[in-house]
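Binder of sperm protein homolog 1: structure, please.
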Amino acid sequence: MFSVGRHKNSKINVSFKFSFSETITHLPEIKDGKCFFPFYYRNEVFYDCMKLKTKHKWCSLNETYQGYWKYCSEEDFAKCVFPFWYRHMIYRECTEDGDAFGKKWCSLTQHYNKDKIWKYCD
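Here you go.
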């Protein structure tokens, strides 16, 4: 789409809008595959199984999604990484520190302060 507008001071304002369609091949589920974490999908990084336009969480079987995937089972979900660094302390187990609701959480990387990747503990 292309549009042109004129402001009060007579300068011409030109704007462009482009739409790109990304083609991604989705192959049938590979049930005995192993999830790869972190994985890249549509220019985002995922550290755990994800739910995007599906009924169940799924993961990629490649570092960069190439159509190979599977639905996640309990053993596929990302595991807590211990020890991890949060603020000025090192944690060796799930913590409630910093959670507004007092729920225990953990980091999915050793450097929470840098990566900010986490999940609630079971």
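Notes: The beta strands are 2-6, 12-16, 39-41, 44-46, 58-60, 69-71, 84-86, 89-91, 105-107, 118-120.
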